[in-house]
């Protein structure tokens, strides 16, 4: 009786898991030791925090769009709800962000439930346009309630200096570790979804709603669950966004440009994958910072946007499945 083949297979599986674990730990360790490196200053740390924030936002959007197949173009509404809820509770009632984040997540979940109940039976571009309409409506609402939201001028947090209670700091270093923890947690959630019954149902609905329904999947419930989970994740990331930038305005919160920004990490890195938003978000902020720095040095306005757009277009054309999808296809080919 030959037992060598199963033993070799188990050994290969263990080796693959070890390599995957090391591959996951390397970027975590690199970010964690960043402040200890002599050449690293606050600018580099702040840029890394920006990357971590948009990675987490991309991870949240990836749940509904990459795994669930719902093209939400107004997803910034959940970012705005997280930012404004946390900021209003802190400024007006003295409630710290550690509590406000859960209130923001609850608001986002309720809004996703209401929005999903009205729009999830729409398909394709009609659902996408409905989410845009919701987002634009929130822009007008925040501009109207000036006393509460600050109107068009936006909402600025009261600054307490270095305060753990207020989740505030004079340097970006605390946000570096906060953002790193958030990305790790969202990565774990994504991996859990991909391996769970919910994730399989979401992917089945994404690929073919009719076939999924015939197999006994509740299409509407699956879509709604994915949307609400993504909304909660986006609102939680919005709290970190608010505490780092210390201010928010209607366009930055609910505007279409912000919604597109939070989609780019998943689109560039690879939709429906756990690593996609991480790779895409890191690349997005790196390109943004490099092109912005180059345009400043050359004193040419708009050059950074042009070069940034060309680079993004190149990545999309060369790797339509995202960077992670591109390398996965090449690996399968070998």
Describe what is shown at a glance.
Helix content is 77%, strand content 1%. It has helices at residues 4-32, 42-67, 76-93, 97-119, 125-144, 146-149, 173-195, 197-207, 209-214, 219-245, 250-254, 256-269, 276-298, 303-318, 322-333, and strands at 155-156, 247-248. Strands 1-2 form a two-stranded antiparallel ribbon.
Please tell me about this protein's structure.
This protein is an all-alpha fold. It has a single domain, classed as ABC transporter involved in vitamin B12 uptake, BtuC (Orthogonal Bundle). 77% of the residues lie in helices and 1% in strands. A two-stranded antiparallel ribbon has the order 1-2. Helix 3 (76-93) crosses helix 10, helix 7 (173-195) crosses helix 8 (197-207) and helix 7 (173-195) packs antiparallel against helix 10 (219-245). The radius of gyration is 21 Å and the shape is globular.
């Amino acid at each position: 009786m030959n037992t060598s083949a199963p033993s070799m297979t188990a050994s290969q599986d263990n080796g693959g898991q070890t390599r995957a674990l090391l591959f996951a730990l390397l970027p975590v360790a690199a970010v964690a030791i960043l402040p200890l490196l002599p050449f690293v200053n606050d600018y580099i740390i702040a840029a890394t925090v920006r990357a971590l924030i948009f990675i987490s936002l991309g991870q949240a959007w990836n749940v509904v769009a990459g795994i669930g197949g719902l093209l939400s173009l107004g997803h910034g509404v959940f970012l705005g709800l997280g930012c404004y809820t946390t900021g209003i509770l802190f400024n007006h009632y003295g409630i710290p962000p550690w509590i406000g984040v859960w209130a923001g997540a609850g608001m986002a979940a309720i809004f996703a439930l209401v929005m999903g109940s009205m729009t999830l039976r729409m398909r394709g571009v009609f659902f996408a346009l409905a989410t845009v309409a919701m987002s634009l409506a929130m822009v007008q609402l925040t501009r109207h309630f000036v006393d509460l939201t600050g109107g068009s001028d936006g909402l600025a947090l009261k600054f307490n200096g270095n305060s753990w209670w207020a989740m505030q700091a004079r340097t970006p270093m605390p946000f570096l570790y906060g953002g790193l923890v958030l990305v790790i947690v969202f990565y774990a959630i994504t991996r859990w979804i991909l391996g769970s019954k919910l994730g399989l149902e979401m992917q089945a609905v994404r690929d073919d709603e009719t076939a999924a329904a015939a197999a006994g999947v509740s299409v509407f419930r699956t879509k709604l669950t994915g949307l609400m989970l993504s909304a909660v994740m986006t609102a939680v990331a919005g709290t970190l966004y608010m505490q780092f930038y210390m201010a928010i305005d209607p366009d930055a919160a609910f505007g279409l440009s912000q919604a597109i920004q939070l989609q780019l990490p998943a689109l560039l890195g690879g939709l429906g994958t756990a690593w996609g938003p991480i790779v895409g978000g890191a690349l997005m902020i790196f390109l943004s910072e490099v092109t912005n720095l180059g345009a400043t040095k050359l004193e040419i306005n708009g050059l950074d946007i042009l070069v940034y757009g060309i680079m993004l277009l190149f990545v999309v054309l060369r790797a339509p499945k995202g960077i992670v999808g591109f390398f996965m296809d090449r690996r399968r080919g070998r």
